[in-house]
Write a structure and sequence with these properties.
Chain lengths: 179, 356
């Protein structure tokens, strides 16, 4: 006694895969054998980051320098079409590789993560959280709502290169994780 | 470890601002990085890019039939498993870019925090993530295509009961140029509850080590031992000191404990250094044993000339613990004792129920 309903929900450009939803039978099937799940939900997607630019060496300075790094846009595409389509994005910043001995301190108050929202889906709530401490993994965006949704933002990481720092290449990595 | 304060905000170099705008890559996200002196008037320009070149996605393919009424089970790996059970779930990883994409696929630790379900940094493991494996740890997805992979969760026979959280991650390669490489990850949450009659977990950590000197000059190390598990512990231990600058070792020195620590409680453990030792700094390593379980913790300490030094947070020695868990489990089976197993990450329930 199976009643299999396929409800195509939507398609999003750039989302691979179709969205189909095999719902269990209606109340008329009370007591029936559980239906084998042939469930096909859409994917949860995040941008594939592009190659970064090359950069001139930082100019050494007597004073500490607050350096903003504007990163490429991060986009979350939630094609799961869930009733509770919640997600969280957390950020982890790796210790800076430094040319000298003065470390780049990722702890508060020398660091920051801010984001500029580019686009969000109407009727879906995305709450950005600015960070003032990059020394530990922390949540920067929380999505709440239902259905297919999309959100993109441009993150800026700010760190302080210490006073009297050596000139040279300062590098790190930033991991955005959506779950 | 020195905190550096921000220096004067005026620059001897004046209002120089260096801006490098990346060339647009045909298949890549446009990125823009600015290095500016700390002159507020020269705030970095914000790029106006709104679209990306593509994304990497993940979805769950298999859902067990007995959980079809749970909407979460369609998106996440949600299951209730008895110890000794193994389950498999297929996942699909997709690539919407116009080039082949190689990604890492692995399981990692996750937590439920005030912010919700949050994945920990790459490399973080907990019990559930360590029981979880992927058929293919690295997959190359064709342009616009998708690839199947299989997640296997093998719950060991001695797993302690309770719900655990982890994530199956798909991780892009780091961009390899520019000062800040970008890595993006997308994951499937795992909510796995363990049933059965196994005892609650035994788990403990040393929170801090403090170096001090008695009035007679004897060096003393105090450890804050924290019972983070669900069972009382009777701990013993030893301390060794290694010079951080040379090759001098001291110890092991026995720790006198003798106290039973209730779940959730913290007790100080004092170790007197029988030898005359220099101020240091020393790498102090404390091995704490309760029942069949031993864990090691390390911190860099410096003995003060007199009085009590600063409490130093410790780092746990992770790798040997799993070997110790293994040997501990074997001993446990042999003696038929009713002791428990390490679950050093899954102590939330016990700590909540037994607030000191």
């Amino acid at each position: 006694m199976r009643n299999r309903t396929i409800v195509p929900i939507a398609l999003i450009t750039a989302v691979v895969g179709t969205l189909a939803f095999a719902a269990p039978a209606s109340a008329a099937d009370t007591g029936a054998t559980p239906i084998t799940a042939a469930v096909a939900v859409g994917t949860l997607d995040i941008t594939v980051p592009g190659a970064g630019p090359t950069l001139d060496p930082l100019v050494a300075d007597l004073g500490a320098q607050s350096v903003p790094f504007v990163l490429g846009a991060v986009e979350v595409i939630d094609g799961r079409a869930a009733v509770d389509a919640a997600w969280t994005v957390s950020v982890a910043v790796a210790e800076f590789t430094i040319p000298g001995t003065l470390e780049v301190d990722l702890a508060a108050p020398n660091s920051a993560y801010t984001s500029t929202v580019v686009a969000t889906t109407p009727d879906y709530t995305v709450t950005p959280t600015a960070l003032t401490d990059l020394s530990a993994t922390a949540v920067v965006q929380t999505g709440a709502g239902s259905g297919i949704n999309q959100s993109s933002w441009i993150p800026t990481i700010t760190v302080v290169i210490p006073a009297n720092a050596t000139a040279g290449a300062y590098s790190s990595s930033v991991t955005h994780s959506v779950l | 470890m020195t905190l550096r304060k921000q220096g004067p905000r005026t620059s001897t170099l004046g209002f120089r601002t260096t801006t490098i705008v990346a060339a647009a890559f045909a298949v890549a996200t446009i990125a823009l990085v600015t290095i500016a002196n700390s002159v507020p008037a020269h705030a970095a320009p914000i790029p106006t890019q709104t679209s990306s070149a593509g994304s990497v996605g993940i979805r769950l393919v298999d859902v067990p039939e007995d959980t079809t009424d749970d909407p979460r089970a369609m998106q996440y790996i949600v299951d209730h498993l008895n110890p000794g059970t193994t389950i498999e779930r297929r996942i699909e990883v997709s690539n919407s870019t116009s080039a082949p994409l190689t990604v890492q696929v692995y399981a990692g630790a996750a937590d439920i925090t005030a912010d919700g379900f949050v994945g920990q940094a790459a490399g973080s493991q907990n019990d559930l993530s360590s029981w979880t494996s992927l058929d293919e740890g690295q997959v190359t997805i064709p342009a616009g295509g998708k690839v199947m992979d299989t997640v296997t969760v093998a719950v060991p026979a001695d797993a302690a009961p309770g719900e655990q959280y982890a994530a199956v991650w798909v991780e892009t390669a780091a961009t390899n140029s520019g000062p800040i490489a970008a890595i993006n990850r997308v994951g499937i949450r795992m909510y796995v509850s363990i049933g059965g009659d196994n005892p609650p977990p035994t788990s403990f950590v040393v929170d801090t080590l403090t170096a001090s000197r008695n009035p007679d000059g004897t060096a003393v190390v105090s450890a804050q031992l924290h019972n983070t598990g669900g069972r009382a512990i009777d701990a013993s231990g030893s301390l060794t000191l290694t010079s951080t600058t040379g090759s001098i070792n001291a110890g092991p020195y026995a720790a006198t404990l003798g106290t039973t620590i209730a779940p959730g409680d913290t007790e100080p453990v004092t170790i007197e250094i029988a030898d005359e030792v220099a101020a240091g700094p020393w790498l102090a390593r404390i091995d704490v044993t309760s029942g069949t379980q031993t864990q090691s913790f390390e911190a860099e300490i410096t003995f003060p000339d007199a009085g009590v030094g600063e409490a130093v947070p410790v780092e746990q020695n992770r790798m040997p613990i799993w070997l110790l868990v293994l040997s501990g489990s074997i001993v446990l089976l042999l003696v038929g004792g009713s002791t428990a197993l390490i679950l050093h990450h899954r102590n939330r329930n016990a700590t909540a129920a037994q607030t000191p």
